[in-house]
Amino acid sequence: MPKETRTVPDFAQGNGLLPAIAQDAESGQLLMLGYMNQEAWDQTLATGQAVYYSRSRKRLWHKGEESGNFQIVKAIYLDCDADTILLKVEQIGGAACHEGYPSCFFRKWNGSEFVLEGERVFDPSQVYDKP
Amino acid sequence: MPKETRTVPDFAQGNGLLPAIAQDAESGQLLMLGYMNQEAWDQTLATGQAVYYSRSRKRLWHKGEESGNFQIVKAIYLDCDADTILLKVEQIGGAACHEGYPSCFFRKWNGSEFVLEGERVFDPSQVYDKP
C-alpha cells in the first residue's frame, strides 16, 4: 500500500519545493499560494505560523515578517499525491496580499479579461519600505 | 504600472506550467491542485470545463474524461503575480479525487502525523480501468 504510507510531504516531487495553499479557516476564502521546502515545512510546524520559501528572494519567508500580517495555522492538509500542502489559517491584519488586498486572487475573469474584484485593506506604500 | 498590465496568466514564470487550484464554488472546499499550460488554459476557456496538463502523462487532461467527474467552471481568478490560477467549479459526481474522496486534501495533520479525514464517494476500482 505505497500510497497510504506517503503521509509526509514529498518534497522530492517538486525538486525540493511544493506548492502550499493558504485558505482562510473561517470564511474559506483562498488567500494565496506559496511554496515550501523541507525547512519551511519544519518551521511552519515548529512556530504554528506559515513559513514559506520565497523563490524570488531565495530564502525562508516567515509570512508577515515585514507587514505584520502573519498567518496563524489552524489546520494542515496534504493531498492524495503528497505534493501539495493546504494550510487553513487565521490571517492577521485581514490581508494576505502584498498589494493590500485580502486575497492574492483579486483579479476575476469577466469572459474576456481579468478585472479587479475586492477592495484594498491597506496601502502597500504605507506598509513596505521602498527600495 | 507593469503589475496592472499583467492581466493574463504568465506561463513563462512556471517554465510553461502554472498551478491551478480548483475550489468548490458553492461550499468553498478546496478540491485539488493541477497544472495548466497555455493550451490547457485556452481549452478551459473554450469548453467551460477544467482542462489541466498532466505532468505524469505529459498531455492535456480534461478532468473527468475517464471518471465522468468533470469540473464546470463557474469563475476564474488570477493572483497578484499572475502565476497561479484559481477555478471555482461545480464538481460533477461530488468527488474530485481519483481516490474517490470529495477533495484530494483528505489527509489532515493531527500534530504528529497525517490521518484520513472524510469518506469516499466512490470506489476507485469501480471507476478506473486497471492496467
From TrEMBL, chains A, B:
It comes from the Bacteria. It is found in: Cytoplasm. Zn(2+) binds at residues 80, 97, 104. It is an enzyme of class 3 (hydrolase). It catalyses: 1-(5-phospho-beta-D-ribosyl)-5'-AMP + H2O = 1-(5-phospho-beta-D-ribosyl)-5-[(5-phospho-beta-D-ribosylamino)methylideneamino]imidazole-4-carboxamide; 1-(5-phospho-beta-D-ribosyl)-ATP + H2O = 1-(5-phospho-beta-D-ribosyl)-5'-AMP + diphosphate + H(+). Its cofactor is Mg(2+); Zn(2+). One of its GO terms (molecular function) is phosphoribosyl-AMP cyclohydrolase activity. Residues 32-106 form the Phosphoribosyl-AMP cyclohydrolase domain. Mg(2+) binds at residues 79, 81, 83. Keywords: Amino-acid biosynthesis, Cytoplasm, Histidine biosynthesis, Hydrolase, Magnesium, Metal-binding, Zinc. Signal peptide: none annotated. Pathway: Amino-acid biosynthesis; L-histidine biosynthesis; L-histidine from 5-phospho-alpha-D-ribose 1-diphosphate: step 3/9; Amino-acid biosynthesis; L-histidine biosynthesis; L-histidine from 5-phospho-alpha-D-ribose 1-diphosphate: step 2/9. InterPro entries: PRA-CH, PRib_AMP_CycHydrolase_dom, PRib_AMP_CycHydrolase_sf. Its EC number is 3.5.4.19. GO terms for biological process: L-histidine biosynthetic process. The keyword ATP-binding does not apply. Binds 1 Mg(2+) ion per subunit. Its main location: cytoplasm. GO terms for cellular component: cytoplasm. Catalyzes the hydrolysis of the adenine ring of phosphoribosyl-AMP. PANTHER family: HISTIDINE BIOSYNTHESIS BIFUNCTIONAL PROTEIN, HISTIDINE BIOSYNTHESIS BIFUNCTIONAL PROTEIN HIS7. Homodimer. In the N-terminal section; belongs to the PRA-CH family. This is Phosphoribosyl-AMP cyclohydrolase. It comes from Bythopirellula polymerisocia.
